[in-house]
Amino acid sequence: MLLAKVQRRFKNCKEIAAFFVREEYLLIFVHNMGTLYIVPTPVGNMEDMTLRAIRVLKEADVVLAEDTRTSGILLKHFDIQNRLLSHHKFNEHGTTASVIERLKGGQNVALVSDAGTPGISDPGFFLAREAVKAGITVQCLPGATACIPAVVASGMPCDRFCFEGFLPQKKGRQTMINSLKDETRTMIFYESPYRLLKTLGQFAEVFGPDREVCVCREISKVHEEYVRGTLAEVKEHFEANAPRGEIVIVLAGHNNKQ
């Protein structure tokens, strides 16, 4: 039946032969393209590195790193000897085209950020999108990220939640916070310790000082800490105890109290 359909499409045997030759070369081309591996790395404890992540970083033809110095320490710790190339938010629009050509040429490329899963408030989205557009296989390994442990350990509903990442530092910041006033899902934010008090104060103004919040600090590190309470209570705590390290804020949704 398939042969009959092909014969109806083409006028003679030469055209049919040319068709199958083109299809054969296309299949070979697709088959020979490399894979883009998005590889999570520990956000604190080195023991959070997975065996699969170690293997992929060893076997990849090249490893793209947000900071080659930081990733170099990681690779050395796990005895991974591979070539590191810089790929970060300031150069990704310039380097992505050459990375795509590597992948089309059959090289396997691994992408890592300084910590956590690339693409989650880190470089990765743009390269992944361009690779998908080019028909390249993109695989993201399961692994470390700060937002999931934070929301699960917060004690707030985690069956439905929204990840907001970092708030804008200036322009659009207040507008974004106001837009979330009636959000019923648990909300997750990343924040710098230097802006935490400002953020908690703005949240108290918009969501009310009695809204429940959990501030997670230094996840998977030696000084891991969870401070739970109302926005007013948690803000008071950090006014007395200066915040340090990586911060994740988990904020209860509207009418999401226990």
Written account of the structure:
The radius of gyration is 24 Å and the shape is elongated. The chain is built from ten helices and ten strands. The strands form two sheets. The protein has a five-stranded parallel β-sheet, sandwiched between helices. A five-stranded mixed β-sheet has the order 6-7-10-8-9, with helices on both faces. The longest helix is centred in the N-terminal third of the chain and has 20 residues, at 13-32. The chain is 41% helix and 19% strand. The model is unreliable at 16-21 (pLDDT under 50). Helix 9 (196-207) packs antiparallel against helix 10 (231-240). With 258 residues, it is α/β, with parallel strands linked by helices.
Ordered list of secondary-structure elements with their pairings:
Blueprint: H1 2-9, H2 13-32, E1 35-38, H3 51-59, E2 62-65, H4 68-77, E3 84-86, H5 92-104, E4 109-112, H6 125-133, E5 137-140, H7 147-153, E6 161-166, H8 173-179, E7 186-191, H9 196-207, E8 212-217, E9 225-230, H10 231-240, E10 247-251
Parallel strand pairs: 1-4, 1-5, 2-3, 2-4, 6-7
Antiparallel strand pairs: 7-10, 8-9, 8-10
Helix pairs in contact: 5-6, 9-10
Structural class: alpha/beta
Round the mean pLDDT to the nearest integer and report it.
Answer: 89
- SSE run: HHEHEHEHEHEHEHEHEEHE
Q: Tell me the number of helical segments per DSSP (H or I, 4 or more residues long).
A: 10
Strand order of the largest sheet: 3-2-4-1-5
Q: Strand count, sense and closure of the main sheet?
A: 5 strands, parallel
Termini Cα gap: 63 Å
How many beta-strand segments?
Answer: 10
Shape: elongated
